[in-house]
Amino acid sequence: MGGTRVTAIVKEELLDDRLAKLETARSWSPRLVSKLESHIRSADDEALFRINPFAFARERSLREDEVIDLFLYATSLGLFGMDWLLLCPKCSCVVESLRSLEAVHSHYHCTACQIDLEASLDDQIAITFTVSPQIRAIAFHHPEQLSAHDYCFKYGATRDGVLPDGRPFVDVKIALTKAVSYLPPGETTRMAIEASEGSILGISPEGKASLLFSIEGAPSATGQVAHVLYEKEVREHAAGCVAPGAITFEVKNATAERGTFFLAVLPPGTKVGQAPITFLPFLTGKRLLTTQAFRDLFRSEVIRTSEGIGVKDITLLFTDVKGSTALYDRIGDLNAFALVQQHFERLQDIAARFRGAIIKTIGDAVMAAFLNPSDAVAAALAMRADIAGFNHGQSDRQLILKIGIHKGAAIAVTLNERLDYFGQTVNIAARVQHLAGADEIYVSEDAYDAGVEAVLEPFKVDSKIAKLRGIQQDQRVFCVPAPTGGEPARQ
């Protein structure tokens, strides 16, 4: 990727120290850390700004889950900073760039499209990574020093929003832009363009000026002048009409701070905010919150917004230990507590292996979250098999799991200073788990998709209609009975 570049000044001693710590932080695939080191040392500035870990993995044929962990560990060691981006799905601009989950809020406004948006962890919150200025200085650490063009189209947009032909939509915006300028405080900036047909879109990324003028009538024989006031936040495009030909926009910055403004000429028939944009895969808030390394390394990250942040589709898994009271009576509190803690550690390792994370423990129970139901069911089978192996040879201290799985919409919140999920999906998942007997796995109908069916193909599966406590409507559920000895082990 070509981009803005400054002389690469790397803090050698600090970089070597942090890379050595990263190398030993956990077990990595061969040369993975050295590939990251090479990127830090040799990539241009733009390639070290808001790194998409999925793109980093794809370009180097690496595993996505390991690369996510790599950047999380590297960030915890000070090699990178984490950026939480609120994206506009209509124009791929970065509406806001925030440095922590705590700063993320549930509602935001795109000034380019003039639309209100609701944040969703599934698809509109992207997490990226920027090299730390303590490791290597890049131009994007000081956005106020960028050119107006780079500020608008490199700092203020993502290249991950693409059109059906694969072109980044930001490249289309650049091609249509005829003028872009900073606006010194208290001054009037003149921006001259030529426009023959279509419409003129004028945008300030700061949201303090916005216009959409149609181009109509006979060409103007004389120069035209339009006056634009940059002063306070606006929530709609100022409408107007100009003739084809030369036009000068006089933009008055009535504030005490520098602003930015650009003018684009749109082809006839173009509707703002209607481009068929899709996004290349990126690290979503949902994926991050179901990554065990994030929950382990960034325990201080919390959601401060009072209404939480929505997640459209999350798979939740609950486990409980059958007969735990009798277990405590049989082997004593200390021994039972140690046993339960060991079982928590084993379940956490398995959840992470299947792209999930432990959200919390409640007594002897576990609540975990996964990206999709098939991962959750595969994890449940592995948990059941692992605990069966763990029990081997200790008849007086066996742990027997009961597991339930459900999926649906939820709200990500902070409860007791910990990231958690709230809502009816959580309630139903817990109730589905309550149906399970010893060594049984119950899956709700909502979670029982084609992927789950494929995972469970070697297993006996029973179906029934069940009444869930506290849930008005009866639910169809699927049960994987306790193993009888002839079923495949899933480790």
Main beta sheet strand tally, sense and closure: 8 strands, mixed
Q: Write down the CATH topology of the largest domain.
A: Alpha-Beta Plaits
In CATH, the architecture of the largest domain is 2-Layer Sandwich
Number of domains: 3
The percent range for helix content is 25-40%
Mean pLDDT over all positions:
92
- Sum up the overall morphology in one term: elongated
Q: Determine Rg (CA atoms, Å).
A: 27 Å
Quick structural overview:
By secondary structure, this protein is an alpha+beta fold.
Structure overview:
By secondary structure, the chain is an alpha+beta fold. The protein folds into three domains: 12-164, no CATH class; 172-275, no CATH class; 307-480, Alpha-Beta Plaits. It contains 13 helices and 23 strands. A hairpin with a 6-residue loop joins strand 9 (199-203) and strand 10 (210-215). Helix 3 (53-60) crosses helix 4.
Highlighted features:
five-stranded mixed β-sheet; alpha+beta; eight-stranded mixed β-sheet; Alpha-Beta Plaits; disordered N terminus; 491 residues; elongated
Write the layout of secondary structure elements.
Elements (H helix, E strand, L loop, with lengths): L11 H14 L6 H11 L10 H8 L3 H13 L3 E8 L6 E5 L8 E4 L4 E4 L6 E7 L16 H8 L5 E2 L6 H8 E7 L4 E8 L3 E5 L6 E6 L8 E7 L7 E5 L2 E9 L5 E8 L11 E2 L5 H5 L2 H6 L11 E14 L1 H8 L1 H21 L2 E7 L2 E6 L2 H19 L8 E16 L2 E5 L1 H12 L5 E4 L5 H6 L6 E5 L8 E6 L11
Parallel strand pairs: 10-12, 11-13, 19-21
Antiparallel strand pairs: 1-2, 1-5, 3-4, 6-15, 7-14, 8-13, 9-10, 9-14, 16-18, 16-19, 17-18, 19-20, 21-23, 22-23
Helix pairs in contact: 3-4, 9-10, 10-11
